[in-house]
Amino acid sequence: MTLPDDPALVRVLAADGSFAPSPAAEPYLEVIDALADADLEQFYRDMAVSRAFDRQATNLQRQGQLALWPPSFGQEAAQVGSARAARGQDHIFPSYREHVVCTIRGVDPVDIIRMMRGLTHGGWDPADPANGNTRPYTLVLGSHTLHATGFGMGLVFDGRTATGDAAVDEAVMVYYGDGASSQGDVHEAMVFAASYRVPQVFFLQNNQWAISVPVATQSRTPLHLRAAGYMPSVLVDGNDVLASYAVTKVALDEARSGAGPRAIEAMTYRMGAHTTSDDPTKYRTSDEEEGWSARDPLVRMRAFLTARGASEALFADVDAEAEALADDVRTRTNALGTIPAESMFAHVYSDPHPLVTEQRAWLAAYEASFEEGAS
Amino acid sequence: MTATTTMPLGRALNAGLRAALAADDHVLLMGEDIGRLGGVFRVTEGLQAEFGDRRVLDTPLAESGIVGTAIGLAMAGFRPVIEIQFDGFVFPAFDQITTQLAKLTNRYEGALQMPVVIRIPYGGHIGAVEHHQESPEAYFAHTPGLRVVAPSTANDAYWMIQDAIASPDPVIFLEPKAKYWAKGEVDMSARAVPLHSSRVVRRGTDVTLVGHGAMVTALLQAAAIAEGEGTSCEVIDLRSLSPVDYAPILDSVRRTGRMVYAQEAPGFASVGSEVAATVMERAFYALEAPVLRVSGFDVPFPPAKLEGVYLPDADRILEAVDRVLAH
User: Fold this and answer.
1) Which of B132, B142, B212, B327 is catalytic?
2) The domain A9-334 belongs to what CATH superfamily?
């Protein structure tokens, strides 16, 4: 199990928001120096707006509008930092808690809502340029790490990467967690990624809990050290948006250069429940939760910006944007209708399949028989 | 020059794969030992030398990894053709096949096609150790989103593998390993029937015999013996296990009134069970006798010394023919 004071930890911002790079952060400082004030403000804005969206979605679930919601609360810095580090041509394979990543890449938050409301198993098309090459969620833990690796193999075979031009060379980034790190598919993905020198970053958000099971049950070895059998890895403070940004940017650019895959373990904390069906009071203490509240990624970044002289007007503007987004999500969620029964038959196969065609026709006739009976 | 050539089923597959690789540079072969060695059954022999190791991949030894990365390659515009080394080794990949490959087009609401072919040498008759002689087709036929086919002749092997690769949907391609060395005429000028059709391979009037894979040979042997005893059997090769082409089967049963299904797989919840149930639903009044199934027993595939007892053969099929004729 990784400890928060691990000497390998890359951290730039202390919990109080002061700029206090850890020794391991030294190689990344030039990446952070290159950031403009507008970038730093954008990072904070992303975190605050996505937290408001997450809170709204949780409320909508509580009010019966959604079947389920897996909150991203507490993991905003790891997600904003990594997502902002990805280039436009990169391909993102999220698990199912990456609401922050997906919305930064351009996915409409209501498309995520539609899935959790029971209107679709997917929600958006990664081929639509609006969605920033972001794949829909995968709910079987770790399965998508292999899809990301295979996609990256395709980039290698088609010469879409490692040309030496970082502005066009493509890479893939896959998100997974401490629980998924025990899945065989994750390890097989690392085997294939290393074997074919795939331009891939494995971004592990260690949020300390796989529903009710602590990370110590998944691994007695720090998770970032596991990667050593496959590829170089780095440990980062996932509640530090600047450090998360810097390590991801470096890892993605190394991967796209042809150097092979890279792994990142971002130490963070799931401040909310696993999902709205979960009750964390049954397995973890309030002391632990309070300890991590003191490391809240938003509080940390806001203190950093304030110390740099950011105006109150900035924070007021961010709060207004967050509130407007949350209101918009609520309005549009409440306006979502249902889906026609025949839609379940529409995309089982790309080419027609006689059994599905037959059953679709049968259901239509069956439903029509009730309408006739009513008239 | 005639386009018809005689070759074993395994070589016909090799020729079909070569044609697909030549026709589309995004067709890839992936699997364990398929490159330098040419596969443990030599089905891919010579193809890596001809097309290179970026087209014919000797992958790491991890079946879930092979199928999972093939899915990602399909997302990137490739058409991967996987070889699973033996039937019993498909199960490490079962999760990727059933929860991902079969469902992705549905999850993406049609915005993604999954043109992945999974070749599985399957079935008994080779006297091998555990996990090397199984018939797992029912798991896949039961899974919405997959197509499942099984050629039984060299000509079908040549055309069906190319049609499977051309399909925009995932295809489980079951190769009856007992037939790899069986020679047949291959007409390379044109396919005889579409991929998802069943086909009458022997005409008859008294009993309809249906089966798939290597069992088609046993059915034909049974029909030949029965003819000597005065019984005329029609034999139908199912070819496509999902979807099933019922028209030739129903047409036949309406003429004969009797049907026997033969398969190597355990009979409980099997493809033969499904075909029997559907024939009962759609041709009930034409039936003179219950539809019978001749299957492997509902036990794990036995040690090789007992495979001759376990596997249905012409005698067991004829025993069932006698029973349907007794009605």
Assistant:
1) B132
2) Thiamin diphosphate (ThDP)-binding fold, Pyr/PP domains (3.40.50.970)
